[in-house]
Every structure is written in C-alpha cells, then in structure tokens.
C-alpha cells in the first residue's frame, strides 16, 4: 500500500466519501426524479430505501475496503481466494466509466451556466437570468462540448495531483458552504407565491403514486446518491486510516445526503409551482427553475454565480471519485502511472460522453429502451450495474467472508449493532435487491 494513497485523517476520509456521495445525485437528479415519480411518494420510498438498504450497504462497502485494503479488481480475490470474483470489481469499473460519461454532460451544463451568468454579472452580456435559454444551450454541441471538456479536465487535474493533496483539501472547504447556500435558497423559495403547494407536493405522499416503476427508480436513486454498487466507496475506505469509524461515518454520510436531497427539493418545488412549471420537466428542472428564484433576490446574479460554483464543486467531488476508481484499478495503486492513466481515461470518457450530450440535441430522436442514449446510459448504470454490484458484494460478504473478520472491520460496537446489520446483509438485502432487479427486467 502506497503511503500517498491514504487519507491523512478520519475526517479527510468522511469528507471525501461524503463528497463522492453528495453531488448531482442529491441536487440535480433527486428533484427531477421526484417530479417524475409522484413527489411525496417518491421521497418516502427514497427515504425508506436509503435507510433500510443504502445505509447497511454503505457500511458493508466500507468494511470490505477497510479489511481488504487494496484496489477493487483485486480485493475480492484477496479476501476470498477466488480470482473470478474480481469480476465484481470490473463491473464497478465499467459502471463508473459509463456514469462519468453522462455525469460530465450535466457537469458541462453547470460550467456553461457559470460562464453565461458571469458574463451577465460583468455586463458583457446585456441579458438577465430569466433570459437564459436552457434548451438552446444544451442542444448546441459547441457550448456543451466545451463545458464537458472543462468539467472532465478539472476532474482529471485533481486526480493527477493525487489522493491527499487534491481530494482531501478541497472537500473540507466547499461542502459546508454549499449547505449554507442551499438553506438560503430554500428560505427565499418559501416566500414565493404558491410556495406551500410545492412543499405539500414534496412532503405529502399520495399512496396511489407508489407504483412498481417509481419504486425501481427510488431504489436506483438511493444507490446513485450513495455511490453504491460501483466499489467506489470500497476504494475510498481502502485508503482510510485503520482507526476510522465505520458506522458513524456511514450514518453521517447518509444523513447529509438525505438533508441535501430534501433541501434541493424544497428549493425547487415551491419555485416550480410559483413559476408555473410542470414537475415532470426532467433533467432540465433545476437549470430552468433556480435562475428564476435567484432573480427574485437582491444581488441575485452574484449569488447565483456563487451557488453555481459550489454546485460545480459538489459535482467535481463526485466525478473525482468516478475517475479515481478507474485510475486506482488501472494503475494497481502504482502512483508513478497515475498521471498518464488519469489523462487517457479522461480522454476516453470525453469520447463516450459525446453521444450522451447529443441526446439533448441532434440525437434526441434516437429513442430505445429507457429513452434517449443519455437515459439508457443512466438506466444501465443506476438500475442494472449498481444493483448488480451491490448484490454480488452482499453475497460475498454474507456467504464467503469470515464473521470474525467482519466483526473486526465493523469496529467497536457497544450496542451490538453488528448482528442486525449482518442478518440484513446475509439474509434479507440480497433478496430485496434481486427482487427489484428481476422485476425491472420483466
Ligand atoms: N453519488 C454521486 C452523486 O450523487 O452525484 C454519483 C456517484 C459517484 C455514483 C461515485 C457512483 C460513484 F461511484
């Protein structure tokens, strides 16, 4: 294990894994998914899945990383002696590669928005926030490819700098700031006319909105938002100091993630009702609604730029973990190869991100399976590869690993939480994930 590949402190590890978890999933994807699948009903299912399925799985991934301490295309054979099980690590690598491909499209939109709003702020552009033409921007391949290039480039540079220097420092400053900003936006959104309709839409579940489809997407969302099933969290835990506390780290990440998702919903739905948008607006929801909220604030353009920069940062701390997973496996944690591999992987990601980006423009008519190319990439990762990876890991942990090793990985446990957690992972969660997985294929 290379020294450089370790977090200096437990706090560094928690912040970085929270950084990986909290990103576009909570802030961009959650509100639009909730809008498409019933508002309050979606939130309720998301909460249940996150707490009952996501949290135990996150603890599981942390334990695997902590006791395995190596890259994830090696860790499964190291722990079980079965080489073929490393395929689970490869599944995760493919998942994050494709994920980065469509993630960078949205990252690119944020970059473009920062450019436009900065120009408005500096009066280079005479327009106002409400003049920003979302559809025209995202269907323009020149703008979007520039945005993606910058987003992927930034991710690449941070990963090249190495684990400690790049990731740990950055996470410590920006996440708390983002949280404060979200609170301010929510406070403003709640003062808009008709805001309470939006609040009710998000917080009052209508049982009739709970369908098989919405359940599948709610589970997919809890996987996506906690970075589960890709072995990304296993990688981060394998870098952590031995004394890290697994339970409290996992709980704090889950709580933060839930908070940010709800805050993002509370920022968007009241505004959406106030400005007469439909909740089923899709991926553009956040980009269309928030400028209108900021416009109602004093110095709104200025604050919107700051918000977008923080939002970009949240997306970057997640995209870093996507690229980091590929780099750690392709270099087998050999830091002398880090820069070259990070660069080549980033170029490959840029290439596969192009069809995803064109899904909002010249390739929007290409529809199959789950929808556009972009939708299918998301579906493949969030609803197939991630649950599959998580299912396989529950089987390894529940059936093959030594219980004493797991107890040791779980750490000191005054209240004997280990046992219910173990029972869940061994006897219940594999069936839950399998059931959802099969239903989805049917
Ligand atoms: N959890 C991230 C988000 O919500 O934006 C996305 C993600 C990052 C998923 C890393 C998977 C992963 F391995």
From TrEMBL:
MF terms (GO), sorted A to Z: symporter activity
Coiled-coil portions: none
InterPro entries: Na/ntran_symport (IPR000175), SNS_sf (IPR037272), YocR/YhdH-like (IPR047218)
Transmembrane domains' residue ranges: 12-30, 36-59, 94-122, 142-163, 175-196, 216-239, 251-272, 301-320, 341-360, 380-401, 421-441
Annotated membrane topology: Multi-pass membrane protein
Keywords from the named record: Membrane, Symport, Transmembrane, Transmembrane helix, Transport
Name used for this protein in its record: Transporter
Species, as recorded: Staphylococcus rostri
Lineage: Bacteria, Bacillati, Bacillota, Bacilli, Bacillales
